[in-house]
Amino acid sequence: MQSASVLRLPVASRTRNFRPRVSDGLALFAITLTFYLATAAQVVLVWQRVVPDALSRVASAYFVLYSRDPHLAAIGFVRNPLPSLLTLPLLPFKAVFPAMTQMAFAASIASAIFAAAAVYQLHQGFADAGLGRRLRLLLCGLFAIQPILVL
Asked: pLDDT 10s digit of each residue in the chain, 151 long?
């Protein structure tokens, strides 16, 4: 029986540090997420402006976890329950950061994550369409800073 041959790499290639390259899309996601979170913190925590819809979504999610009878149906189905479901994982942090529920900051965090994901998806769509790197980044940057998306 023959022994399996072992592939031996040269010493130089085994000791070289490997640093993965961050793609443009992931870098764009991280930058826009930071921008959206900073903007949300400025609007909600500093200027103390609360969007009434965000407050109602966080309240619906709050009733799921912290009501006298906690159950998933407490979200209600008058509106789409998905935004309330997406804020559920953030609500336990209200013990260390009360603004999560009092100022509906949990809804702002969820919105920031998904707005940054929309910028990432747009970038990937432009890449699939064959647009050049500069044009992709320019169009995604313009999309990311439009006032309605930022708000």
From this structure: 555 566 665 555 555 666 667 788 899 999 999 999 999 999 999 999 988 888 989 998 998 889 888 888 888 777 788 888 999 999 999 999 999 999 999 999 999 999 999 999 999 999 999 999 999 999 999 999 999 888 8
> Which residue in this structure is represented by tokens 């764009």?
28
Q: Which of 150, 42, 151 minimizes the C-alpha distance to 103?
A: 42
Q: Smallest Cα–Cα separation from 57: which of 118, 125, 107, 17? A: 107
Task: Kindly tell me the number of DSSP H helices and DSSP E strands found in the chain.
Answer: 8, 0
Work out the number of other CB atoms within 10 angstroms of the CB of residue 7.
5
Q: Are 106 and 90 in contact (CB under 8 A)?
A: yes
CB 116 within 8 A of CB 29: yes
Which is it for the CA torsion 8, 11, 14, 18, positive or negative? negative
